[in-house]
């Protein structure tokens, strides 16, 4: 069973991000890059399916510039078998739909039985690529999954998807797209052996032309990035706990008018 | 009608639209309308249709069919896409919920248009719409715009001003024929969570959050007690969830829920960046922490540097007294 895992390289949450000279982009120097955390759940889940079945092929795929090889290398170190790197400046301003179109083209070339991605990437938080990929392929899709079991014949997958107030359990025929929610699993750390082995694994470079995308114009574009408006300075309420609480409750009621 | 602003209805699965719809409909009106609702459901209460009218929908496209529940993106997307092709709305808006996030993404792909997910502001600039969205853990705001219509956007709950109820106003109800594609997904079961009796985290107007300072799972009961008094949801920081004190569905932050309540109160929450990412658009922020250096005080409107175990019971008493008046 072949499983494709779509990952995105994003700035580490703790990294400072600054707007660059181009107001549409961030300053990329000095940034620590990581695999988006939800995508790590996706890689882990793919590896677990393969291990449970005793066979399979896990292919990691990502879009982005040269630095993205590092993220793919990390996925290979975790245990993915090989990787596909869609690396083309023509796709630099890709929105979720263009990204999904590129991934759909990769899926058509690779023909996996299952695609797993993270629920959303933690840089732009769109959370759309998985569902859009499914739509373009005409596949069923379950987002925000908390549990997953592929049946013995690899014909269907049973998933629990998180919704407000509960969990909905669905059977999906394969091929299908799943997006991973936190709680699905605990991603492994690459072992030293894994890291060494990853260096010998294949990362295939792919250009937009190889994917026959045709029109590569995004449907949604960023016009500007802005710093957050500053919050008004806060107030530390001093004094004995009893008095401080009294004053806080009064302020919430009379000044802030939120209660 | 052509050029309308559509709002996709999020309902309670029992025939009534959720309160968050007042926000989407209110925003559609502010953008100049015409405001229309699109409701996919297996059952729609007459009171629900009335409610949408009172929130400002002039028309409700009622797509009613037993095959539309439970929600499945593969079924919903073609139904709305077909109607949109016929009616050519200018924009399609929906509140952020787990299913609407997926549905709107799928619909955008089907229509071949852009989607601005989890928007916190929308504005018309000339003949284009510009959405504002928090990005990079809420550290920056990104403004985005569309190449063509319909403009698709999901709206963060509790951010947009809800429409005022206009009693007695009703919407024209259109019931177009519904043809469903064959569904590939089959529902096996729905597991309901044990209700806390408190509001849902993303919808609540007041949220209390307990962090590492709560010291253990047994202590959340004091927050639930306070929550019961003020009508608040109770959430937790990642540290508390990772320690196993609270289930993941209560986690506020980057790998949990994004909330934007009128009032957020953090107890024993340090304010790590990944937590701030999930709550920094809250209107009023209160922090209670023993450590005066806790980063959360930097974004708090009000702070008390003290032991939460002394503060919370005192607050419960004080709010009880105030709200009983």
Protein architecture, described:
- The complex is a heterodimer of chains A (259) and B (325).
- Chain A is of the alpha/beta class.
- Chain A has two domains: 2-211, 3-Layer(aba) Sandwich (Rossmann fold); 228-259, no CATH class.
- Chain A is built from six helices and 13 strands.
- A nine-stranded mixed sheet of chain A has the order 9-8-7-10-6-1-4-5-11, sandwiched between helices.
- In chain A, α2 packs across α5.
- The longest helix of chain A has 17 residues, at 37-53.
- Chain A is globular.
- The model of chain A has no long low-confidence stretch (mean pLDDT 96).
- Chain B has 325 residues and is of the alpha/beta class.
- Chain B has two domains: 5-174, Rossmann fold; 206-324, TPP-binding domain (Rossmann fold, 3-Layer(aba) Sandwich), CATH 3.40.50.
- Helices cover 26% and strands 26% of the residues of chain B.
- Chain B is built from eight helices and 16 strands.
- Chain B has helices spanning 21-30, 46-54, 73-87, 98-111, 220-230, 238-242, 273-276, 308-324, and strands at 5-8, 35-41, 59-64, 91-95, 115-119, 121-125, 128-135, 140-146, 151-155, 172-174, 186-192, 206-210, 233-236, 263-267, 284-289, 302-305.
- At the A-B interface, α3, α4, β7, β8 and β9 of A face α3, α4, β5, β7 and β8 of B.
């Amino acid at each position: 069973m072949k499983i494709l895992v779509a990952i995105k390289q994003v700035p580490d949450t703790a990294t400072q991000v600054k707007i660059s000279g181009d107001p549409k982009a961030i300053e990329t120097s000095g940034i620590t890059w990581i695999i988006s955390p939800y995508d790590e759940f996706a890689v882990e889940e793919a590896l677990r399916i393969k291990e449970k079945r005793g066979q399979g092929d896990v292919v990691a795929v990502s879009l982005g510039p040269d630095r993205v090889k590092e993220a793919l290398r990390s996925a290979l170190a975790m245990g993915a078998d090989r990787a596909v790197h869609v690396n083309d400046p023509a796709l630099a301003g890709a929105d979720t739909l263009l990204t999904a179109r590129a991934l759909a083209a990769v899926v058509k070339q690779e023909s996996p039985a299952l695609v797993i991605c993270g629920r959303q990437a933690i840089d732009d938080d769109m959370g759309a690529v998985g569902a859009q990929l499914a739509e373009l392929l005409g596949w069923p899709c379950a987002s925000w999954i908390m549990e997953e079991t592929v049946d013995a014949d690899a014909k269907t997958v049973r998933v629990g998807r998180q919704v407000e107030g509960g969990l909905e359990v669905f059977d999906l025929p394969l091929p299908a797209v799943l997006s991973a929610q936190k709680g699905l699993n605990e991603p492994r750390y690459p072992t030293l052996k894994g890291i060494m082995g990853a260096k010998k694994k294949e990362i295939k470079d792919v250009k937009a032309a190889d994917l026959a995308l045709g029109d590569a114009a995004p449907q949604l574009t960023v016009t500007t990035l802005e710093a957050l408006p500053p919050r008004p300075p806060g107030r530390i309420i001093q004094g004995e706990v009893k008095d401080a609480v009294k004053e806080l409750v009064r302020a919430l009621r009379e000044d802030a008018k939120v209660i | 009608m052509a050029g309308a602003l559509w709002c996709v209805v999020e309902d309670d699965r029992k025939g009534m639209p959720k309160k968050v719809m007042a926000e989407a409909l209110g925003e559609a009106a502010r953008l100049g309308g015409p405001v229309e609702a699109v409701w996919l459901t297996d059952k729609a209460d007459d009171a629900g249709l009335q409610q949408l009218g009172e929130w400002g929908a002039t028309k409700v496209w009622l797509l009613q069919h037993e095959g539309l529940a439970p929600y499945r993106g593969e079924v919903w997307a073609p139904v709305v896409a077909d109607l949109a092709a016929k009616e050519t709305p200018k924009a399609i808006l929906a509140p952020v919920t787990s299913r609407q996030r997926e549905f709107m993404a799928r619909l955008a792909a089907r229509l071949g248009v852009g989607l601005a997910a989890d928007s916190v502001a929308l504005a018309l600039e000339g003949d284009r719409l510009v959405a504002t969205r928090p990005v990079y853990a809420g550290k920056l705001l990104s403004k985005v715009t569309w190449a063509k219509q319909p403009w698709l956007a999901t709206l963060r709950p509790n951010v947009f001003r809800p429409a005022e109820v206009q009693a007695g106003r009703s919407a024209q109800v259109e019931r177009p024929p519904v043809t469903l594609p064959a569904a590939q997904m089959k529902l096996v079961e729905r597991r309901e969570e044990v209700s806390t009796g408190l509001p849902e985290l993303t919808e609540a107007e007041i949220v209390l959050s307990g962090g590492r300072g709560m010291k253990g799972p047994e202590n959340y009961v004091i927050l639930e007690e306070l929550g019961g008094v003020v009508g608040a949801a109770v959430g937790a920081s990642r540290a508390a969830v990772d320690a196993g004190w609270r289930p993941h569905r209560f986690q506020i932050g980057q790998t949990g829920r994004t909330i934007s309540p009128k009032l957020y109160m953090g107890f024993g929450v340090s304010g790590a960046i990944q937590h701030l990412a999930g709550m920094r658009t809250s209107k009023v922020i209160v922090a209670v922490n023993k450590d005066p250096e806790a980063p959360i005080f930097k974004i708090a409107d009000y702070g008390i540097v003290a032991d939460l175990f002394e503060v919370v019971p005192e607050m419960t008493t004080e709010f009880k007294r105030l709200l009983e008046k």
